[in-house]
User: Fold these one by one.
Assistant:
Number 1:
Amino acid sequence: MKLSLGLAMLLALSLAPSARAASEADYKAAYAAAEAASKEAAGMRNQWTVTVSALAAAKRAADGGDFGRAVAAAREAEALAKASIFQAVSEKEAWKAMEIR
Amino acid sequence: MNARIHIPLASLVAALVALALTSPDVVAADKVDPVADARAFQNFFFQKFPNVKHEDFVNGPYSMNEDMKRQWQEKEEFPPYEFALEAGKEMFSTPFKNGKTYADCFPNGGIGIRQNYPYFDSGEGKVITLELALNRCREANGEAPYSYIKDEMASLTAYMAYTSRGKLMDIKIPDDPRALAAYENGKRYFYTRRGQMNFSCASCHVQSPGERIRAETLAPALGILNAMPIYRSEWSGMGTTSRRFVTCNSQTRAVPLEPQADEYRDVEYFLSYVANGLPISGPGARP
């Protein structure tokens, strides 16, 4: 019992920082970062459809006042955009390995 | 003190000699050589599929699967592209408002010339595809351009391909560094992975022709454009080369480029060039 209570408290404490509801400011910061990465990918002509969808989902959630979901979607969009940038950079040379010679 | 200076100098000289000895190989490997590329490209498919007749590669998935081929041959008696073909023929001969026709824009009146497209325009310094040339013809004659994706453009190119059936693809790369650069850019686009699926054109059409992706049998890259435009059952209609590129990009979860973007024109140039010597079979029908 003592152990369970201790564990429960520990769990509650460890979750406490992330349990804070995301604010509009959090969303705006996350969205701005995602949008910047997305624009960079588009500039490299290597945008992914899933990045665009995640950005749109973030905006939709924010418009509906669900900033927690909006932040999560924006962070996903940023991660996807960064992956597409990595792909574009690495493929500048890596494509040659596929070539029929 | 002197010795300390001489050792790095000797190392530098040795490094420069080594670089000089190795760099010609590096340059040679990166040299743009379309003739060697086309030979290697065709040999790859001929060796991978020794039982497929060379001229059969232009029939895409039907060259990879006997059952599919038989079904397709039966379908060819009443081909699904027939309506587009008839519409294209009528459109081609119908004068613009100024009295001119498409025939006035093309060599040989536009008949039997599909095998020469795309070509490199030295004046403009860019690749000109048949779809682009058709819309430029319209605009030069005061008409609005068509969508590059389907409908009228597919009908017109279907008719022009039909008048060229059996003619061997004959794409030229002029002695112009810009033409070589366009060819190389197309090659790079073909082999570059993109989209969340991390697929290149080659992932499907070089590494896996004859294999299935869900219900589809993948076509070999060799001669893949010789059958364009195509009626696709999946689309329930006709589609142009532009539509094919856009769809492929979307399927890899990459945002497609605008139709007739430089990259698409260049990859069409590359794919058509490496199919030189294979017959035009368009318009085609695909599952």
Number 2:
Amino acid sequence: MLGTLLFQGLVGLSGAMYLWLVSAGLTLIFGVLRVLNFAHGSLYMLGAYLALTLVTSLHQPFWSALLLGAAGVAAVGVVLERVFIRPVYRLPIAYQLLLTFGFVLIFDDLVKIVWGPIYQVPPMPPSLGGAVLVLGRPYPVYNLFIMGAGAAVALLLWAVLDLTRWGKLVRAASSDREMAAAVGINVPWVFAEVFAFGAALAALGGALTVPVQTVSPGMGEGIIITAFIVVVIGGLGNLWGAFVGALLIGLLQAYGTLFVPVFDLALAFIVMALVLIWRPEGLFGGRPA
Amino acid sequence: MSGSAGSRAAVGGASAASRAWPLAAWAVVVAGLLLFPLVGRGFALFFLARIAILALFAMGFNLLFGYAGLLSFGHAAFYSAGAYTAGFILKAYPSLLAGVVGGVVVASLLGLVIGFFCVRHIDIYFAMLTLAFGMLVFSLVWKWVALTGGDNGFIGIPRAPLVLPGVGPVSMTPIGHYYEFVMAVTILTVAGLWRIVQSPFGLVLRALRENPERVEFAGIPMRRYRLTAFVLSAAVAGLAGTLLAPLENTVGPETAHWATSGEPVLASLLGGASTFTGPIVGAVLLELIKEVVERHTQYWLLAMGTVLVILVLGFRGGVVGGLGALLRRLRPGPTPQAAPADPPAATEP
């Protein structure tokens, strides 16, 4: 029994990592730009589709598909931010949600137009296939790889934001955009770069699902709602909170399917409601990243 | 329409005339709608009933968004609660009124519970919480197969006869009869909502949207007002749902999905969320666009998304707001106040 619990925990941890990648970009963008991007799940979906095409049609190795997919979506992100989202910075948050919601609808249909209803799963990259024995049960190597990737992204984010010059610019623009502009920081470009960075993270998350999950037009909507829950639980704009929130929800979903299968969808919503009642700003809220 | 508030400032005969005109226009619209079955039939009646239902749904939503400044992404919960409850009742006890009243009661109670948690928050947190509760209801509807029929929907809902005190049972099977019922309910509800938004209660809601701090300093219990608005809004959305169930004879889980929550948002924005009639005009346009787009292409989401982006970027006043601004520019003199001002205005801290 204990073995089952621990094993299911491992399953939950790997699931949490996709969620973390999406939530990290979402909360980073919110922390700096103060825009909650409904279309973030669509960027995740776009990353998956691009990676799929790169692997199956263009015969790229998995690694370059990951990077090229993320880069492609980052480019889409720059256009999205510069052309469409910039004009709504000054509007109330409801309009930012509505604008990005419009893009959720647009991306869903665009993906159907470009890719059609394909559902094939490309072969697992050989170096990541197979399974190892954990607690006497076979555990997929790919899941271990996902956990490593999630941890690596967490480290990378910390290093970039806390140690580099660019990280300083981002933090400056995030805490006071007028002051940052006054001391000569090109704030609009920092915003575009942050948006592109967040989009790339989402796309990476999407691309990483490609060898193990089917790619479909609805996949963005599924994850964006869960990611919203994660960042709201963690505190909007707080990266550390998003990490903890992703782990929490990932584990909850894994154990939920084990213990209360009928109610597993609802568990995350209940936890979010409870957290918001107890701490309206989220667990780590108050201070943006 | 929008002239009544500002016309008090105008002098003499102009005020009487500007008050009479909207009234006459409303009378013509109401008469036209009620007499329509004399000329139209079949699909046209069905289509108009659907528009009326969406209009009600959007009016309910916009009481929160346009007046109280709260953007809900979860109103499908109340809509589907109304629809399913009406379906259950009608199947067990064939009385149209019982189904409608029961559905509204259940939707209001659900609104009371969900609203209790949501009205503590504003802006994003409010939107996210309503979205979360909405999806909670969706997952319940989806998974509770024994009660709701799950994916297949709840089927075989009869269009039960209407029994009024003093009047014998009126059969609702002919679409013409049911159309009259839907229109009557819609018109009465719209009139009721007009009374509400013109009342001191409506004024407080608008004040809450514009400047919550000041309202609180004035000693007004903010949360209680927001909760009352939330429950009212849920009740109207639920009413729209109860009308849908007998019209379609089935209710599916998609009525609870967040895509359904998006429809009143779109309708309100399209027509003009800052105006009373905006959601009605928006509902008409939305159903028309849907009908045309779906006939020519399967990419309905693409069209709707594009419309939404264009509206947010360029036409936040919507059709009614845009026309109102145009009229005011053409007609010099004292500018009449539009019912509520631009809903988003000045909500930013």
